[in-house]
C-alpha cells in the first residue's frame, strides 16, 4: 500500500494534477487529496493544476485555489498524477517532467503507470475511491469527505454503474457519516442541468440516429449548434448517458466538434460491448462501459470508422 504521508514527509513543494477536461472524479480526487495533504503537512506548499472545471464543482473546498493558468513553477518535490497517465495531463505535463518524484493514482485499465510510484487499480470504480483508500480515516473531515464523495458519485453514476462494488457502498456510507448535505450535492452536481444544457440535450436526442437494428445510437453536435446554444464541452455531460438509457441500445455514441474536422467522441455501453477496445483503436481509452477518443474527419467519416469497430465488438457478444 502506498503511504501518502511517508512519501511526502520531506517534500516542501507538492503538485497535483489530473486529466484535460477534468470530470467530477478527477476534480473530487484532486481536491480531496489537496485538502488532506495541506491538513496533514501544514508546512508544505501544495497546489492543484487543472483546466478550469465546471462551476457545479465550485462548492468543493479548494475549488477557487485550483490553478488553471499553468504558470512556470519551481520543480515540485512530489508531483501527483491523478485519474490519468502523464500523457493526458495537457499543460500540467511540464510539472510532471520536472518533478523530483512522481506518484500516479488511477483506475484506468489503459494506464500502464507513468509515475515513479504507481497506484493503479482498474477494478476500482473511481480515482476518488482510491484516494479515500490511501487516507488515514482519523485525518478526514466533512470537507474532505464531500470532495471524495462527489468524485465517487460522478464516476459510478450515483452508485449505479457496474463499477460500484460492495466496498464502494461501504465507503459511501462512511463518507456521508462525516455529515454533509449529500442529497443536494447529488442533485446539483449530477442531475441538475441549466435550461440551455437541457435544450442542447433535447436537440442531441432529437437528432440522434439509430443503426445496427437499434442496438447502437449516435448523435453529434457541431460547433455552429454549440455556439447557437452558447454551450461549452463541459455543458454536454450527461447526453451520452441519456442516449444509452434508450431501450434496446447496447452502445451509445455522442460526439461534439472540437476543431475543424475533429470530433471528441464519448462511448457508453449497457452491458456487452467493450467500448474501451473501440476507443483504444482510435488512440483513446477509458473503461469497458465508458470510454472516449478524439477523431479526425467529418461526422460521417468518424461514425463510419467507429461503426465498423463497434460492430466487431457487438459480434463478439
Ligand atoms: P467521457 O466520455 O466522459 O469523456 O469519458 C469516459 C471515460 O473515458 C473516462 O474514464 C475518460 O477518462 C476516458 N476517456 C475519454 N476520452 C479519452 C481519451 O481521449 N483518451 C483516454 N485515454 N481516455 C479517454
Ligand atoms: Mn475516473
Characterization of this structure:
With 317 residues, the protein is an alpha/beta fold. It is 38% helix and 19% strand. It is built from 12 helices and 11 strands. It has helices spanning 4-8, 24-40, 93-98, 127-134, 142-156, 166-176, 182-191, 195-206, 223-229, 239-244, 275-281, 299-315; strands at 13-18, 45-49, 78-82, 101-106, 117-120, 209-211, 216-221, 251-259, 262-269, 285-286, 290-296. The strands form 2 sheets. A 6-stranded mixed β-sheet has the order 6-7-8-9-11-10. A 5-stranded parallel β-sheet has the order 2-1-3-4-5. Helix 2 (24-40) packs antiparallel against helix 5, helix 5 packs across helix 7 and helix 11 (275-281) crosses helix 12. The two termini are 37 Å apart. The model has no long low-confidence stretch (mean pLDDT 97). The structure holds guanosine-5'-monophosphate and manganese (II) ion. Guanosine-5'-monophosphate binds next to strand 10 and strand 11.
Strand order of the largest sheet: 6-7-8-9-11-10
- Overall pLDDT score: 97
H-E order: HEHEEHEEHHHHHEEHHEEHEEH
Helix tally equals 12
Low-confidence stretches: none
Any idea what the shape is? Answer: globular
- Ligands present: guanosine-5'-monophosphate, manganese (II) ion
Amino acid at each position: 500500500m502506498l503511504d501518502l504521508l511517508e512519501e511526502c514527509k520531506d517534500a516542501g513543494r507538492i503538485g497535483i494534477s489530473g486529466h484535460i477536461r477534468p470530470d467530477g472524479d478527477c476534480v473530487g480526487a484532486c481536491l480531496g487529496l489537496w485538502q488532506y495533504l495541506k491538513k496533514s503537512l501544514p508546512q508544505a506548499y501544495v497546489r492543484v493544476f487543472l483546466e478550469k472545471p465546471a462551476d457545479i464543482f465550485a462548492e468543493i473546498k479548494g475549488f477557487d485555489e485550483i490553478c488553471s493558468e499553468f504558470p512556470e513553477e519551481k520543480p515540485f518535490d512530489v508531483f501527483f498524477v491523478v485519474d490519468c497517465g502523464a500523457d493526458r495531463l495537457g499543460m500540467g505535463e511540464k510539472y510532471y517532467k520536472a518533478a523530483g518524484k512522481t506518484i500516479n493514482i488511477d483506475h484506468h485499465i489503459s494506464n500502464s503507470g507513468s509515475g515513479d510510484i504507481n497506484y493503479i487499480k482498474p477494478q476500482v470504480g473511481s480515482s476518488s475511491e482510491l484516494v479515500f483508500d490511501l487516507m488515514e480515516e482519523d485525518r478526514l473531515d466533512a470537507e474532505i469527505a464531500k470532495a471524495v464523495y462527489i468524485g465517487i458519485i460522478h464516476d459510478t453514476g450515483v452508485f449505479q454503474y457496474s463499477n460500484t462494488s460492495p466496498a464502494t457502498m461501504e465507503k459511501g456510507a462512511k463518507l456521508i457519516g462525516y455529515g454533509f448535505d449529500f442529497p443536494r450535492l447529488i442533485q446539483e452536481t449530477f442531475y441538475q442541468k441549466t435550461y440551455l444544457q437541457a435544450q442542447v440535450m433535447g436537440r442531441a436526442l432529437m437528432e440522434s440516429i439509430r443503426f445496427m437494428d437499434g442496438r447502437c445510437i449516435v448523435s453529434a453536435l457541431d460547433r455552429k449548434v454549440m455556439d447557437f446554444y452558447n454551450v461549452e464541452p463541459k455543458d454536454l455531460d450527461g447526453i451520452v448517458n441519456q442516449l444509452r438509457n434508450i431501450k434496446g441500445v447496447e452502445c451509445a455514441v455522442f460526439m461534439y466538434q472540437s476543431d475543424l474536422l475533429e470530433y471528441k467522441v464519448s462511448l457508453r455501453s449497457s452491458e456487452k460491448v467493450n467500448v474501451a477496445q473501440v476507443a483504444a483503436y482510435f488512440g483513446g481509452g477509458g473503461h469497458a462501459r465508458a470510454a472516449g477518443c478524439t477523431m479526425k474527419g467529418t461526422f460521417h467519416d468518424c461514425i463510419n470508422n467507429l461503426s465498423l469497430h463497434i460492430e466487431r465488438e457487438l459480434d463478439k457478444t
